[in-house]
Design a protein that fits this description.
Length: 241
C-alpha cells in the first residue's frame, strides 16, 4: 500500500531524469531494437495488434485516473489533448475495435510524435518511480511500435485521400486546441509555447500558425516517404514516355 501511494503521489518534486543519460539511452536502445525486429521479422499478427491496443488503452486510463484522483493540474495538463495522447487513444481504439480512421490518425501522428517524444522527453516533475514517467515511456514506446507495425508490416499506406483527411483533422484539432489554450491558460499541443525554453517571445497567433504549418509539412513529408516507391515509378514512367 505504501508503494502504491508513493507511485501515485501528487506533490511535485525536482525531476531527476537526465537527457541522454544511462536510463534514457537504454530506453532508446530498446526502442530501436524492438522496432528493427518488428520491421525485419514480424508478420501480420492480430494478437500483437490486440496487445498493443490494450497496453495503450490501459496506460491512458491509468494516467487519467491519476490526474482525476490527484487533481494535479487536471484541467491544464490532464486532458487527452496533447498530440501523442490523441494518437495513443485513436491507435488503441483502432487496433482493438478495427476502426480504420482512428487507426490511421494514430499511425500518422504516432510515428513522428513518438520518435520526437522519446528523443527529447519531457517527463513531469516527479522522481522515478511514478505513474507519469512509467506512463510516458510505456505509452510512447508502444505508440512507436504500433505505428511501425502498421506502416511496415501491415502496410496500411497513405493515399491522397488519407492525406486530405489527416490534414482536415489535424488543422481542425489545432484550431480548437489553440482557442481552448487561451481560454484555460493551458499549453496543449504546445500551441502557446514550445516544450523547451527560447529567449524570444513570439506573437501568439504567429507562433500558433508556425506550429500548425510545421505539422502540415511533416504530414506531407510522411506521405512522400510512405509513397516514395510509387512516386519514383511514376517519375520513371513519365521520363520514359
Amino acid at each position: 500500500m505504501n508503494f502504491f501511494n508513493y507511485f501515485f503521489r501528487s506533490i511535485p518534486e525536482k525531476n531527476n531524469f537526465i537527457l541522454f543519460g544511462k536510463t534514457h539511452m537504454s530506453i532508446l536502445i530498446i526502442a530501436f531494437i524492438v522496432s528493427y525486429l518488428i520491421i525485419k521479422n514480424m508478420k501480420v499478427n492480430k494478437n500483437f495488434e490486440l496487445l498493443v491496443g490494450s497496453v495503450l488503452l490501459i496506460q491512458q486510463v491509468s494516467l487519467y485516473y491519476w490526474y482525476y484522483t490527484s487533481r494535479y493540474n487536471l484541467l491544464t495538463e490532464g486532458l487527452p489533448l496533447y498530440h501523442c495522447r490523441v494518437a495513443i487513444l485513436t491507435l488503441a481504439l483502432g487496433l482493438i475495435f478495427k476502426i480504420d480512421l482512428p487507426l490511421r490518425i494514430g499511425t500518422y501522428w504516432g510515428i513522428f510524435g513518438s520518435i520526437g517524444a522519446l528523443l527529447l522527453p519531457g517527463p513531469d516533475p516527479f522522481i522515478f518511480p511514478h505513474i507519469t514517467q512509467v506512463s510516458y515511456f510505456v505509452g510512447h514506446l508502444f505508440l512507436l511500435w504500433g505505428s511501425i507495425y502498421l506502416l511496415f508490416v501491415k502496410k496500411i499506406g497513405m493515399t491522397k485521400i488519407d492525406l486530405k483527411n489527416i490534414f482536415l483533422f489535424t488543422n481542425l484539432y489545432h484550431v480548437i486546441v489553440f482557442v481552448l489554450n487561451h481560454k484555460i491558460s493551458s499549453n496543449y499541443a504546445y500551441l502557446r509555447q514550445p516544450p523547451f525554453k527560447i529567449n524570444y517571445t513570439f506573437n501568439p497567433y504567429f507562433y500558433g500558425f508556425i506550429v500548425m504549418m510545421i505539422f502540415n509539412i511533416i504530414l506531407v513529408l510522411e506521405y512522400l516517404f510512405i509513397n516514395k516507391k510509387d512516386l519514383m515509378q511514376d517519375k520513371l514512367v513519365i521520363t520514359t514516355l
